[in-house]
Design a protein that fits this description.
The chain is mainly alpha-helical. The chain has helices at residues 3-25, 32-36, 62-104, 109-114, 126-166, 171-197, 203-223, 225-239; strands at 29-31, 43-44, 50-51, 54-56. The strands form 2 sheets. A two-stranded antiparallel sheet has the order 1-4. Strands 2-3 form a two-stranded antiparallel sheet. A hairpin with a 5-residue loop joins strand 2 and strand 3 (50-51).
Length: 244
């Protein structure tokens, strides 16, 4: 296996692993204000509502997925991105089936008895918790498969289009620009399908969380711009080592 193959394998492994983690971790929505010890933001929102900084746990690592996607696009082109995108979608679908089966099998009695109370001594149904969390994650998977493939293909196309305009210059423009375009779709489509169509959210909640998540992704994409240059330098050094 040559260096190019090693590189593609390594980048693909990072891409696939983080994408699957994001699918299952994304069921939890957390408060950024509480995490930072701040008061609720209560920013003005349409309809007289207030906007707090609430994010899906899965979205925290999602910019890393798109950073790696941009690196794959840079070195292996749109075909390289499409290949790993479809492989990842297939693995996410496989994960969906395994987890669906896992929530359907009957729990062992001793497992229920060993976990029948929480730390405070209150009654606790671990099988119900397991099923609730993972089946909520299944809704995210159903929504994100659509959002993931569409946004990835758009990201690859936008990256390639900007690269054709700028050549080897302005890596920051094609990396950040493609993310700005693709994440506009990803941030809202997944929430709409997972939590509005298949869940119990209102459209307003979808728009609120989607807006916060999109802002987070774009902001982090800009902040990570130096990292993609460092990664680009490291990969170039790896692919073209200096002669002794």
């Amino acid at each position: 296996m040559n260096r190019n193959q090693h590189l593609y394998l390594m980048l693909s492994a990072i891409f696939l692993t983080n994408a699957i983690i994001a699918e299952f971790a994304g069921v939890k929505i957390f408060s950024l204000e509480k995490l930072l010890g701040l008061a609720p933001a209560q920013l003005p929102f349409f309809g007289g509502q207030k906007l707090d900084l609430n994010l899906s746990v899965g979205v925290v690592i999602w910019p890393l997925v798109f950073l790696v996607s941009d690196l794959i696009n840079e070195y292996f082109g749109r075909d390289g991105v499409r290949k790993i995108s479809f492989i990842t979608a297939g693995m996410i679908a496989w994960s969906f089936l395994v987890v669906l089966a896992g929530t359907g099998v009957p729990p062992a009695n001793f497992w229920l008895e060993l976990n029948n109370a929480d730390p405070a001594g209150n009654p606790f149904d671990i099988n119900y918790a397991y099923t609730s969390i993972f089946r909520a994650g299944l809704g995210i998977i159903a929504g994100s498969l659509t959002a993931f493939l569409v946004s990835q293909l758009i990201d690859a196309y936008a990256f390639h289009y900007l690269k054709a305009l700028t050549g080897s210059k302005k890596l920051w423009l094609r990396a950040t620009g493609s993310t700005v375009i693709s994440q506009l779709i990803d941030s809202f489509v997944i929430l709409f399908i997972a939590f509005y169509v298949l869940g119990n959210w209102s459209m307003q909640q979808v728009l609120q969380v989607g807006l916060v998540q999109y802002t987070y992704k774009v902001s982090l994409a800009i902040l990570l711009t130096p990292l993609i240059y460092i990664a680009h330098w490291g990969i170039d050094s790896y692919l073209m080592p200096k002669k002794a």
